[in-house]
Amino acid sequence: MDKIDLTGDLAGGLANDLVGASAGSEATFMLALFWGLIGMAYFVYGKKQSNLPALGAGIGLMLFPYFVSNAWISAAVGIILTVLPFVM
After folding, report:
1. For residues 37 and 46, what is the distance between their CA atoms, to the nearest angstrom?
2. I want to staple 16 with a disulfide (CB 3.0 to 4.6 A). Which of 21, 51, 71, 82 is the partner?
């Protein structure tokens, strides 16, 4: 009976699919880092000033890169979330 090797491509591919790394690129990583930093600044500002739209946008900016693997969509969502507190 053959043993199943979980350290090979199957496990690595599964782990990459779970975290979204297989579909990512350098641009996606850099955008995620950028939006995360902007989101952290919005979150701190919103918390200190009791500004709910800035707080919500900050949380959104920090979390959405985990779910978006396309650089263009990441840029669009990030821009919308960055402008949103000024519109509300």
Report:
1. 14
2. 21
Residue 42 to residue 46: CA distance in whole angstroms: 6
SS (H, E, C) the chain: CCCCCCCCHHHHHHHHHHHCCCCCCHHHHHHHHHHHHHHHHHHHHHHHHCCHHHHHHHHHHHHHHHCCCCHHHHHHHHHHHHHHHHHC
Q: Which of 58, 25, 24, 53 is nearest to 41 (CA)?
A: 58
How far, CA to CA in Å, does 24 sit from each of 16, 27, 31, 40, 49? 10, 8, 11, 22, 35
Question: Would the pTM of this model clear 0.90, i.e. be above it?
Answer: no
Tell me the pLDDT tens digit for each residue of 22-68.
Answer: 456 898 999 999 999 999 999 999 999 999 999 999 999 999 999 99
